[in-house]
Amino acid sequence: MKSVSILIKSLLLSLLLATAAQAADRVNINTADAATLDAVLVNVGTSKAQAIVDYRKTNGPFKSAEELAMVKGIGLKTVEKNRDRIEVGRSAAAPKRPAAAATAAPAKPVARR
Fold first, then answer.
1. For 85-110, what is each residue's pLDDT tens digit?
2. From 98's CA, which of 8, 47, 57, 78 has a CA 20 to 30 Å away?
């Protein structure tokens, strides 16, 4: 009975650790620092990771993973190898888009007969 309890506990612990490891394998290229990009992305070293951060500071946040290929030293093959590791979310510094209702022209009153 005791061995079954230990077996169940070890299975739950390994499931928990596997889930945490999977979550760590993804990186938001709009918010991550150079060290995180270097650690998570394949074929991206310290200099390329810093180039990603510099490009992001100069040109604003990435809108898609493919835009990463515009960084010097990173090609489409590197982007494809890392596609499942890349997240493209809104950065904290990115301006929020106004709601559609706020940008629409106000309705003109209609004269009734």
1. 999 987 555 444 444 545 566 667 77
2. 57
